[in-house]
Description:
Blueprint: H1 10-19, E1 23-27, H2 34-43, E2 50-54, E3 64-67, H3 73-79, H4 88-95, H5 98-105, E4 112-113, E5 122-124, E6 147-149, E7 153-157, E8 164-167, E9 170-174, E10 179-183, H6 189-201, E11 204-209, H7 214-221, H8 230-238, E12 243-246, E13 253-255, E14 260-266, E15 271-274, E16 289-301, E17 306-308, H9 320-337, E18 343-348, E19 357-362, H10 369-379, E20 389-394, H11 402-412, H12 415-418, E21 419-426, E22 441-449, H13 467-476, H14 478-481
Parallel strand pairs: 1-2, 3-17, 4-12, 19-20, 20-22
Antiparallel strand pairs: 2-3, 5-16, 6-9, 7-8, 7-11, 9-10, 10-16, 11-14, 12-13, 14-16, 15-16, 18-19, 21-22
Amino acid sequence: xxxxxxxxxxRGWLALAEKxxxxxxxxGAHWDKEIGAASEANYKSAAPPALVFDDIVGxxxxxxxxxASMSNARRLGMTLRLGxxxxxxxxxxxxxxxxxxxxxxxxxxxxxxxETGPVKEHVIGPENADLLxxxxxxxxxxxxxxxIGTGCAVFTTDPETGVLNAGAYRMQxxxxxxxxxxxxxxxxxxxxxxxxxxAREGRAPVTASFGxxxxxxxxxxxxxxxxxxxxxxxxxxxxxxxxVIRGEVTGLPLPATAEIAVExxxxxERREQEGPFGEWTGYYSGGTEPVLTMDIERIYHRNDPVQxxxxxxxxxxxYSYMRSVMKSAMIQDALIQSGLPGVEGVWAHEAGGGRQLxxxxxxxxxxxxxxxxxxxxxxxxxxxxxxxxxxxxxADVNPRSLNDVVWAMCTxxxxxxxxxxxxxxWGSRVDPLREQGVxxxxxRAVIDACRPWTRLEAFPRVAEASEELLDRVTRRWPDVLxxxx
Length: 485
């Protein structure tokens, strides 16, 4: 894999991305909203480059913030060690069956515990802990504060089995930099670990990394199978174990090559007002509410540390492309592994944040097949969280094309017969439809946008040229049509 073998940390990743011409720099931006706004403007471009912010107002040169790390196919393919020249189609093809393979092989890549690492170039105790010594952005105009945890990996363990979990939970700086709130959704593995620690010992150990190989953001931000350590999963992707150190206070692991890392304890009653924050749904998530908060026991950091920023917002946002690609691959893998026949493709659309709108293409083989696909896709673990619409289309429809999916809905769905709803399913506190104080249920629709099984042969023929004819005319007039295929 050449240069990809040399990537062990964020700096190695950044050096390779720069060599490939995938990085742009911005100098002199202010941490107060300017970094966030410039990043947002970048996400809206056709193929956003990675942005490095340096010379940030009020901070010394070299303290940098990176955004848009995986906002296009080339850098995401690079991060997943699949290649350095992939486009969208090649990336999807390269990912076929990979999530299942990585999950199955993860146990072979137990973390490599080392005595020390670059992250320990500076170790700061609680008396001098100050997260605002780093250029932590206020990402959105109406955020309730500065968020150091967006592209982060937050580590918790099962107190009984010791199995490690990494989650990308938002973390707001509190108490003038001496603490950070950790906003974990109740249904996530990390939240279960915290509850179990509280029941056993009255406190829960937590560590977090704020700058690392973006691969760790991929595994922390998507649903790795239960019981599989995200660090071991990352090892399977890399083809070699991840180096970790043990936190001096909690004993929990931290990536040895992290740029900035912290550790401390959560207590049931230790909470600070947190939020609002611009979330992946495209809305600010409510007002402020008390959230579990960690007083910082240790800060570890490298010289001139680089923060990995991944602020959400109205799609497209920092990690919406990454999530769409990864969720699509994971859901397709899970459907196929369930034994379901005929699954041709899955796409979790960016417009729904990579979660709320799924399209599944199927080659219908029996009566009821399309509905079976829809029901399974709507509730399987890889897709269940905050899912709202599952659209099942025939194999002649490209599930990645929102235009084609909506066309199939408009021409093959009878609203009275082909839309089913599920109630009181797994929602989220960040859902803008949820009312304050109400449990985070949601409702989801399964939309059958396939040709009716009873009319498969008699259904009207689609008015479009065949692939062979389109290829022929494209080859004949490549100067005019070459860019259209």
